[in-house]
Task: structure prediction
Amino acid sequence: MSPQQYKLLADAVLLVHAAIVVFVVLGLPLILAGGALGWTWVRNSWWRAAHLAAIAYVAGQQLLGVACPLTGLELSLRLRAGQPAYSGDFVAYWLARLMFYQAPAWVFSLLYAGFAIVVALSWLYVPPVYPWARRRAHGNRQR
Result:
């Protein structure tokens, strides 16, 4: 593969990584707003489980001191492309780049864990609706 192809792959990994971050970060306010405004899609059990699993995975990695595999893949591809690679955590790097924000690793651990707890608590405020419960409810109405 050429350096340009490695760069394109690295950029694709960056976009996927950014999309996951957006999903996790914006998911919570959408769930809370949707619960208050009666949006039924925010109660989709598959979407909610994916959202909770994503932040739980991120928080668990950070608490265990494990590097994100997407960050490692992107950095490896950037090096193969002959580009400089950043060091550290994906979110910390991009926050520093976008907002000039820097903090020790424990701050990010605390933020990720706290965010994961709030996402888990959102299941109490806006409980998901499970497909089998929906089928049962529709079955009871038709009789």
Remarks:
- Residues 86 and 93 are 7 Å apart (CA to CA).
- The first helix runs from residue 3 to 37.
